[in-house]
Design goal:
This protein is an alpha/beta fold. 36% of the residues lie in helices and 18% in strands. The protein contains 15 helices and 19 strands. The strands form 4 sheets. Strands 1, 2, 6, 7, 8, 9 and 16 form a 7-stranded mixed beta sheet that branches. The radius of gyration is 22 Å and the shape is globular.
Length: 562
């Protein structure tokens, strides 16, 4: 029950990184056979489409590349790979122009006709390019149109299961996929594979991620032998909606609200950021505002539903209705008028700064394996600035697309190992045989464990408990059964997601336990200080048999010192 496919370049993931990579590879060499794999509908799934806020780029003469770089590195608590951070800020102005002039995006304009740039928290200049508060829809719609125009093959509603490697394990030679609609496996032989699946901390109880994002790319890369980096760094966005019992619970109210001057109040009506960052207040970085909100709630000063309040009504109803149309409409659906009253919010798991270790062109330590976007690590360090995410995906998607097109030229396909294909299909198919467990309760339990033990505030004791509970969940996953056949069996898909999320969750908890300081999004209540003397280091992880090997390397401070 396995179909066969041969292609030059296999790209898993169709958000901003995957689509930009495919286009750039095609533009460099239209003769290449390129295959895109989308877990959902092309241009209709994933997180890039959900981007509300915008895209950071230095376009104004009063701004500077150095200022954007310093904002990015300081915001990342100096854990960034500074070469990657500089690549981001140097390339983003050119890619914004490419999105407009070649891709066809129409960004908002200022009164003088220039691209309008708005304020985002954590930045020293208003540099966020946007389309109202629905920027991602515009970018993804235009990228999808360009993909259709090229005729690049796209396998929709298809997921990656495992990467295939050469006999010596040093080169990636393809992948095993699953057609979600038919339930059939697909074996793909490819000269190169690029991972752009978007990672995503969906394993947390409250999450703002698209449901397709289950750490697939990171988990597959880890199992294949790729080196990972900074896995402890998980960002919590401070303003996720509080809607108990609804799928909107945890959905974002974006950064632009705080950039525009929103106020945050605790349940007692106090602007609590005065206690945590009296200088920047609500315009502080995401990690600080999320931690402040969490601490207010745990101190008993939260709302009845365990959140805080965001209020933009003082900015004027007309201003809010004009500039934050999408968010106001979303709030109206749950009974709040964002333009005229405060709305209940709480931190929500949003982004993985950690992932696959890459260089500036998306190369990994495995020959033939490339990565870009949220599957990769190093750009953001310990915390990502709002507006740098979609910039990263398109900048590094473009670079990796150019690089992989050049790399595959004059290269032959590697040899697929039949035993690897059998192992991958049997592991996935085992969930279809009768067992005693359902994946859904396991998913809920993992969400609780990660939120309470490896979330916004951590400790050695909590993290050890998390690892014990994750080990128990991994054992229970082996007994999971997903009745209902193969075709569009969402319970089966949930079991496959759980396998990847448990892999990533264990690596997050192990890395967080290893890091004995507080830095960016990683806060340890038993090591509250940022310790540059001992912990200005990146934590790396790779597979070692059935376990993981972790090690540290000093951050290379090539351009900016703390």
């Amino acid at each position: 029950m396995s179909n066969q496919l041969s292609t030059d370049i296999l790209i898993l993931g169709t958000g901003g990184a995957g689509l930009m990579a495919a286009l750039h590879a095609f533009w460099r060499d239209p003769a290449l056979d390129i295959t895109l794999v989308s877990k959902g509908g092309l241009g209709k799934s994933g997180c890039t489409r959900m981007v509300q806020g915008g895209y950071n780029a230095v376009l104004d003469a009063k701004d500077s590349i150095q200022a954007h770089f310093e904002d990015t590195v300081k915001g990342g608590a100096f854990l960034n790979d500074q070469e990657l951070a500089m690549t981001l800020v140097e390339d983003s102005p050119r890619i914004v122009r490419e999105l407009e002039n070649r891709i066809g995006c129409l960004f908002d304009r200022a009164a003088d006709g220039r691209i309008h740039q708005k304020a985002f928290a954590g930045q020293s200049f208003d540099r966020t390019v946007h389309v109202g508060d629905l920027t991602g829809i515009e970018i993804m719609s235009r990228l999808r149109d360009q993909i259709f125009a090229t005729g690049i093959r796209c396998l929709e509603y298809t997921r990656g299961l495992e990467l295939l490697t050469s006999a010596d394990g040093q080169r990636v030679v393809g992948a095993v996929l699953l057609d979600i609609q038919s339930g059939k496996f697909i074996t793909v032989k490819s000269k190169a594979v690029m991972l752009c699946t978007g990672a995503g901390p969906l394993m947390y109880q409250r999450s703002a991620c698209a449901q397709e994002k289950a750490m697939d790319g990171v988990a597959m890369a880890y199992r294949a032998g790729a080196n990972l980096m900074d896995m402890e760094m998980v960002q919590f966005h401070p303003t996720g909606m509080v809607v108990p019992g609804s799928r909107l619970n945890g959905a974002l109210l974006e950064e632009g609200l705080r950039g525009a001057g929103a106020h945050l109040f605790n349940g007692q009506g106090e602007r609590f950021m005065q206690r945590y960052d009296p200088e920047k207040m609500e315009r502080s970085t995401r990690d600080r505002v999320s931690r402040a909100s969490y601490m207010e709630v745990t101190a008993g000063r939260g709302t009845a539903n365990g959140g805080v309040w965001i209020d933009v009504s003082h900015l004027g109803a007309e201003f809010v209705e004009k500039n934050f149309t999408g968010m106001r409409d979303r709030c109206l659906r749950i009974g709040f008028d964002l333009a005229r009253e405060k709305v209940e919010v709480c931190p929500t798991a949003h982004f993985n700064m950690g992932g696959i270790r890459i260089n500036r062109d998306g190369f990994t330590n495995l020959e033939g394996l490339f990565a870009a976007g949220e599957d990769s690590a190093g750009v953001h360090g310990a915390n990502r600035l709002g507006g740098n995410g979609v910039a990263e995906s398109t900048v590094f998607g473009a670079r990796a697309g150019d690089a992989v097109a050049g790399w595959v030229k004059n290269r032959k396909h590697g040899e697929v190992q039949a035993t690897q294909v059998t192992d991958a299909t049997e592991t996935a198919g085992n969930f279809l045989t009768p067992h005693s467990e359902s994946p859904w309760p396991l998913r809920d339990e993992l969400g609780r464990v990660m939120w309470e033990r490896a979330g916004i505030v951590r400790s050695g004791e909590k993290l050890k408990q998390a690892l014990n509970e994750i080990a128990d969940l991994k054992q229970r996953l082996e007994k999971v059964s997903t009745p209902g056949g193969r075709e569009f069996n969402l319970t089966w898909q949930q079991a496959l997601d759980m396998r990847n999320m448990l892999t990533a969750s264990e690596l997050i908890a192990r890395s967080a336990l290893m890091r004995e300081d507080s830095r960016g999004a990683h806060y340890r209540e038993d090591f509250t200080n940022t310790d540059h003397a001992n912990w200005l280091k990146n934590i790396y992880a790779s597979r070692d048999g059935d376990g993981a090997k972790l090690w540290t390397e000093p951050v290379k401070l090539t351009k900016l010192q703390p």
